Amino acid sequence: MTQNAFPRLESGIPGLDEMIQGGFPFPSVVLVAGSAGAGKTTFAQKFLFEGAEKGEQGLYISTLSEPAQWMLRYVQQFEFAKQEFYGKEVVYYDMGTALRNSTGEQLLQMIDDKVAEIMPQRIVIDPITVVGTMMKDDYRVFAFDLVTRLKNWQAVTLLTGEVRPGELYPAEISYAVDGVVLLMLSDEGDARRKYIEVLKMRGTNHITGKQSVDITTKDGVVVLKARF
Ligand SMILES: Nc1ncnc2c1ncn2[C@@H]1O[C@H](COP(=O)(O)OP(=O)(O)OP(=O)(O)O)[C@@H](O)[C@H]1O
Ligand SMILES: [Mg+2]
After folding, report:
1. What is the distance in A from the centroid of ligand 1 to the CA of 220?
2. What CATH fold (topology level) applies to the domain 26-184?
């Protein structure tokens, strides 16, 4: 972590920290929102493995009923995902089943309990928008309570959110978080082109506008020098 007036936690995403004055404000809750398949999970995994390299503790909470094995198989293709960190510096926790059988208050308690057990500096909840689909009207209040609780921990939390076609960003949660980073596929013809855009970052004089990104087997999501 960089020590200055406003402590920063390096994102681990090559090229991003230069855009946000050295990293995410610590502590904070940041929404990584984007199109399906734009690289949100890859971004979040690199964030955790970057911490692991520095001896920091990470917690990955999945809201899909995906076995940890399934996620591991995906992330293993990336060079940054060193096997030795699994289950130690990077802990996986599947909340998918609980999500179907619990109240919002119970879910908040489960997350708090897990964070208290692991004491991570880096937390990921991927994807948070699935909770919205299940909770419907209660989601706005849940999202606000979740973000409030997460801000009390000495950690940076990344929430990932899907931006549906025609949407600009997931509105129900964006207002509550400290930062919003968009990761989008081009909607003009060539859908393989991707860009990143920092919409907001509390206490940070961040770069505005769209910046091109690529996904590589070595580093995952990489911000390119080129404007999108
Ligand atoms: N080794 C790789 N090299 C280059 N690109 C890759 C590689 N692996 C995956 N990708 C790209 O990353 C995309 C998936 O990334 P990821 O799962 O992180 O996206 P996501 O935003 O989390 O998707 P979802 O909306 O399904 O959760 C793939 O669609 C593919 O374009
Ligand atoms: Mg994903």
Report:
1. 9
2. Rossmann fold (3.40.50)
